[in-house]
Amino acid sequence: MLGFLKNPIVVRAEINMNLLALTVMGLISRLRGLSYPRAVVFDEVYYGQFVSLYMKRIFFVDDSGPPFGHMLLALGGYLGGFDGNFLWNRIGTEYSLNVPVWSLRLLPALAGALSVPLAYQILVEMHFSHCAAVGAALLILLENSLITQSRFMLLESILIFFILLAVLCFLKFYNSQSYSAFSVRWWFWLLLTGVACSCAVGVKYMGLFTYMLLLVVAGLHFWHMIGDQNLSNVSLVCHFLARGLALIIIPVTMYLTFFYVHLALLYRSGPHDQIMTSAFQASLEGGLARITQGQPLEVAYGSQITLRNVLGTPMQCWLHSHKNTYPIRYDNGRGSSHQQQVTCYPFKDVNNWWIVKDPGMQQLVVSNPPRPVRHGHIVQLVHGITTRYLNTHDVAAPLSPHAQEVSCYIDYNISMPAQNLWRVEIVNRESDTDAWKTILSEVRFVHVNTSAVLKVSARGGASLPEWGYRQLEVVGEKLSKGYHQSMVWNVEEHRYGKSQEQKEREVELHSPTQMDISKNLSFMAKFAELQWKILTLKNEETEHKYSSSALDWITMDTNIAYWLHPTSGAQIHLIGNILIWASANVAALIYVCLSLWYLVRRRRRIYDIPEDAWQLWVSAGRICVGGWAVNYLPFFLMEKTLFLYHYLPALTFQILLIPIVLQHLSNHLCRSLLSKSMFNAFVVAWFSSVYLVYCTFSPVTYGDPSLSVAELKDLRWKDSWNILIRKQ
């Protein structure tokens, strides 16, 4: 029974020394001197703020993309014991001792290092020679811009890693299709493709380009499978469902998971939550939640409320009034009603409080039991401090003459009666009998007499002149068929009024309330709101000193100065290996020209290369040329500030094309032994030149050693490059 113990247990393993050597070289090139410089480098000033907020569990919104990349950077800080206490306000600021610089930069550096062996494996899986695969990996290894971008707390190297991982996994899945469909290996690579795609999209939305490319390639592959008569209908359905699960359902699920973890980590209120809705703010610890916790859920007649405009741009604001009146005449000569001003005020104030009154009763307190206000009910809104009624009439608004003026009514004993009845319309109701709920309900107020809708000025929240204290204009808009957030309000603060006397009520309005009903948003509601803010929130685009156009990238007519030593000439630049960039462009041009030549010749039934070589050539183009195109061309349609590092994912695919073209030329165009020898000699000389250029620009890639003024001037190979030279 125990006979198997008579012989030793032997484990045999095959080690690809090429892969091992490339991995070690990648790690050395990216990890060497990783803590240098111990100062904030370029966009570390941007991403570092988010790392600190993660460490302190404070909510933030970043309109640049999803949260997964930020969480990976924060993971580095967490592993290094970072407490989040550092002021990220200036490039070049020296890091304090509590900042674990090496740990914060570790994950981007590892991603950059592992991209080297990934490039090797991708070409092997595309069935090119190991020599070509090693060449592709070495080009990634020696590309100065990729080294620079991976050695700091930035996201591009992580994005490129997941993009390459997704491509590699898909190729391994594709290659296992013919001999082991639905095997463990087949499922592993298919599922890992979906995981890698979701991670790429989760780091930056640029990852969506490669994800869509792989979906198209997978779709073409399945289309060809449909024509395979050897596959049964059941088998085709299983293949379709498997691909749908791995390439759509899993990425979507993981994408949601990134946001779930993000929101679970960031549960504290902070400065960024001001752009979110009241319901979202109330779900965070501190901030608005401290005010709204335990408020009554249903608005009733007699409720004291503050009304926040849902639009939130150009700033959040609350329906507001004060004792000042509109001027009798405006500067342009138009007259006003001289009624009490109603505005939208961007700060919390006691004058933001209103009382919901039943038009048929005089009392301003909540009855027992409370009578909730429902969709379609008619109400009057009484200003809490001045006790005047919200009103609108056929008088032009001060800044928007096409709309009606909104005021609090003052009886001047003239022929201008009060028009203060408003119908409550709950926009997000589930039924026509829904009650008006605190924070959760989004409501419109429709004026009964004129059908005008209460809204913030259509001019994006126009600011009134000095007489209106620069507060935002509120108007009654008659053209209200469409839905716009400027005409939607939600109750933010709420209490049940108990005091009928005005003086007692004023004291009540200044006091916080505590009741026993809490409000919580579901994860999907919070995700939908946060996702919408990320997609629609636009920071003011300003021209940056190092911004560039997409046309500048191909020929590398631009660079970015990342860091300058405060006293010496040591500096770090995002600047590429110009020979690699030029060679990548030439390789792409050769590929396109040769492909067109082959297509024309094949149309004439002339086959210059064997069919298997042609299929290899086409499949390489789908991945490399397609990867370059989808990661580059969309930038011509983007209205945003662009930088050279946006080109790096596209460049990576273009670099992979270089050894593919070289192998193709060697195998199919160099017919004689002499021509092959001459071509090989050219490749060796060219590769030696690539290494020489890498060494030449290494001082501004690693920031060490410091260069003299003359040496820095020698590095300005293009007049458009901005190499920093100190004045003597």
From TrEMBL:
It is found in: Endoplasmic reticulum membrane. The gene is Pomt1. The keyword Repeat applies. The keyword Membrane applies. This is Protein O-mannosyl-transferase 1. It comes from Eudromia elegans (Elegant crested-tinamou). Its EC number is 2.4.1.109. The chain crosses the membrane at residues 68-88, 100-120, 154-174, 186-203, 208-226, 246-267, 578-600, 620-637, 644-665, 677-697. PROSITE patterns: MIR. Its main location: endoplasmic reticulum. Gene3D superfamilies: 2.80.10.50. SMART domains: MIR. Pathway: Protein modification; protein glycosylation. It catalyses: a di-trans,poly-cis-dolichyl beta-D-mannosyl phosphate + L-threonyl-[protein] = 3-O-(alpha-D-mannosyl)-L-threonyl-[protein] + a di-trans,poly-cis-dolichyl phosphate + H(+); a di-trans,poly-cis-dolichyl beta-D-mannosyl phosphate + L-seryl-[protein] = 3-O-(alpha-D-mannosyl)-L-seryl-[protein] + a di-trans,poly-cis-dolichyl phosphate + H(+). Residues 296-359, 370-427 form the MIR domain. It is a multi-pass membrane protein. GO terms for cellular component: endoplasmic reticulum membrane. Keywords: Endoplasmic reticulum, Glycosyltransferase, Membrane, Repeat, Transferase, Transmembrane, Transmembrane helix. CDD domains: beta-trefoil_MIR_POMT1. GO terms for molecular function: dolichyl-phosphate-mannose-protein mannosyltransferase activity. Belongs to the glycosyltransferase 39 family. It is an enzyme of class 2 (transferase).
